[in-house]
Amino acid sequence: MVTITDKSQCCGCWACENICPKHCIRMEEDSEGFRYPVVDTDKCIDCGLCEKVCPIKQPRQDDTAPESFVVQNKNVQILRTSTSGGFYSAIANYVIERKGVVFGASFNGDMTLRHTYSETLEGCAQFRGSKYVQSLIGNSYSQAKRFLDDGRWVVFSGTPCQIAGLFGFLRNRKYEKLITVDLVCRGTPSPRLLAKYLAYHSSIAGSKVIDYRSRDKYYGYDYSTATITFADKHKSYHKGMEGDMMLRLYFKNICSRPSCYACHFKTLHRLSDITIFDCWDAPSVSKMFSTKGATNVFIHTAKGKVIFDRLKDDFIWSASDITPVIKRDGIMIKHCVPANPRREEFFKDLNSLPIDKVEQKYLDCSLAKKAIAVLKPMLYKLGVFRLYIKFKNRV
Ligand SMILES: Cc1cc2nc3c(=O)[nH]c(=O)nc-3n(C[C@H](O)[C@H](O)[C@H](O)COP(=O)(O)OP(=O)(O)OC[C@H]3O[C@@H](n4cnc5c(N)ncnc54)[C@H](O)[C@@H]3O)c2cc1C
Ligand code: SF4
Ligand code: SF4
Ligand code: SF4
Asked: In whole angstroms, what is the distance from residue 331 CA to residue 272 CA?
């Protein structure tokens, strides 16, 4: 039976929980806010299934060279609300047109990120956009299997470890109508941190949080912006990279799951049909692309290629060369970020100090930093910062 002795060796994918025939595994939250399996040994029959499906226990496969493309959705509204080029929404559309089911990560009413599904196009809008927090898989692998066994199309998106968890749970059985899409993934922050951060902003605004976007395009694609929407919409919060606590902690490598700093899934070879990630400078790939966001797409399977070809009318696209793509945008495909040496101390403080005190202790809150946090978004909004970057790149 599954026993966790080293937390870096459990990515929290829920495959063991979904497969257990005795339902005796619970995913329990630890002191950092991440979930790990705990077995009720009285009910366990020692069948060993939970260990067999664990994706971390599977051997890493050799790298293969995928086909590489850059895409930008032609639908302006989808492009605006997607993280990069809106590729995932194009696939969702494809599956819904075939009366299939779309799985992805979305917030529930309590602002907990979990995997769920939709059978309508309107329902798929909830999946758009990257959420920088670990999503709870819950019973979504079992639900996906039921739809597949009924002969329905299913598209499942998630982090590479979640897609590996899905394949573990399916015992690598091949389903012709299953499409899997994984992301290039830097890591997933603690759900407890996000809950504290949102509660803090809710108390300042005096209004309930109804939506949170980690990578809004409020100031444009190339300036990551956190947007919090409150029930009182006039109080909306938009802060760029330098001004938002959650983004700053994420990029400080201090708040992700331990397995993210020793990630087993950072290989060019993927189990998924398709891998998607940011394309930061699409106009340099082709003048056809605007600066409004584009997705790098790696196709790993023949099925992925067939679907990509059928979708081509939905977006502007161009083939690309994987070597420069990896160098420019894809460092995280194969490399882990190192854990911040203060990570352990950080989580202790997260449990004992108010979140604004945690911010002051771990982030530079000097006047100069605050001035940049106010000025930079304004320069982005006016287009000045982008001109400066263009000039700098030319020089
Ligand atoms: C935690 C995280 C880290 C990432 N790190 C990188 C990186 O280092 N480099 C890089 O180039 N790209 C990274 N990405 C991917 C990138 O942010 C975009 O998702 C990608 O460019 C696809 O954009 P899109 O516009 O095509 O689709 P989007 O509209 O962004 O939708 C993509 C899909 O992501 C799923 N999703 C969103 N949040 C989560 C989550 N927390 N867990 C599981 N699934 C989720 C949604 O269900 C949706 O189906 C990361 C994404 C996430 C969620
Ligand atoms: S060994 Fe079998 S019964 Fe026991 S926890 Fe694992 S899957 Fe469940
Ligand atoms: S199957 Fe997933 S959740 Fe279970 S032990 Fe393995 S990595 Fe952890
Ligand atoms: S970095 Fe690796 S372990 Fe962490 S969420 Fe991403 S794929 Fe999973």
From this structure: 19
Tens digits of residue pLDDT in 30-70: 999 999 999 999 999 999 999 999 999 988 777 788 999 99
The DSSP 8-state label assigned to residue 55 in this structure reads G
pLDDT digits (tens, 9 = 90+) for 289-311: 999 999 999 999 999 999 999 99
Centre of ligand 4 to C-alpha 260, Å, is 5
Number of domains within the chain: 2
Do 252 and 311 sit in the same domain of this protein?
yes
Q: How confident is the model at residue 356, as a pLDDT?
A: 95
Q: Are residues 300 and 185 in the same domain?
A: yes
Rounded CA-CA distance 164/40 in Å is 25
CA distance linking residue 319 with residue 180, whole number of Å = 21
Containing domain of residue 95, as a range? 54-367
Of ligand 3's atoms, which has the minimum distance to the CA of residue 4?
Answer: 5
Distance CA(359)–CA(337), nearest Å, equals: 21
CA of 194 to the centre of ligand 4 (A): 17
Which bound ligand lies closest to the C-alpha atom of 19? 2
Residues 25 and 61 in one domain: no
